[in-house]
Amino acid sequence: MARLRVGLTGGLASGKSTVGRLLAAKPGFLVVDADRLVAELYEPGGEGAAAVAALCGPAYLTPGGGVDKRALAARFFADETLRRRLEAAIHPLVLRRFLALAAAQDGIAVLEATRLVEAGYRDQLDLVVTVEAPEPLRLARAVARGLSEADARARLSAQGDGADRRAASDLVLENDADLAHLEALVDTLAGELLARAGRSA
Fold it and tell me: Mean pLDDT of all residues in the chain?
């Protein structure tokens, strides 16, 4: 069983996924992407596909029985009531999958999720790390990745200023410089997490 269960979160273009990749490359760390777990749940026969069918109807499944992600996304973002109901159905399934994977891990298990705090995962984790960066820098990074400036601004606005993430987090990584700086931060973070895991063993 994992000696430490860690949540990793952060807003758009904060560098959360880069931190996840850097941690995953270190011995003793298992990093699980919540989006990947959702994709697995949406496969034919998956519990997520069953939840989508129950909430939205079979028209939102492919002929093979998996979730038609394009059709679902079109409705998901247009219907707030449905979005809340679907999230309430899917988030517990994601958490259960992660906890099962963590139970089979002898080191540190990390759940990477943008909406980790909103999903209510906090109470099932030993600590939460958030990756933050100034909004102008996040905007520039998002646009450099291919988002239009209007889309990037809308997503940043919807995610807020990060105050809730910071308040729910035990550790904050300020990713406000270059990759070498972030790598050094992650090295320090990994050392601290390993030390905590050793103390809890």
Answer: 93
Region of 173 (left: φ > 0; alpha: ψ -120 to 50; beta: rest) is beta
Residues 170-198 pLDDT 10s? 999 999 999 999 999 999 999 999 999 98
Q: What angle do CA 23, 110, 198 make, to 5 degrees?
A: 80
Give the C-alpha separation, 32 to 102, whole Å: 9
To the question of pTM greater than 0.85 for the whole model, the response is: yes
Residue type, 125: L
Alpha carbon of residue 94 to chain centroid: 10
The order of strands in the sheet holding 171-174 is 29-33, 108-112, 4-10, 127-132, 171-174
The one-character DSSP state at 148 is: -
- Calculate the alpha carbon distances from 198 to 72, 107, 109, 178, 194 in Å: 43, 10, 14, 31, 6
pLDDT tens sequence across 65-80? 999 999 998 888 778 8
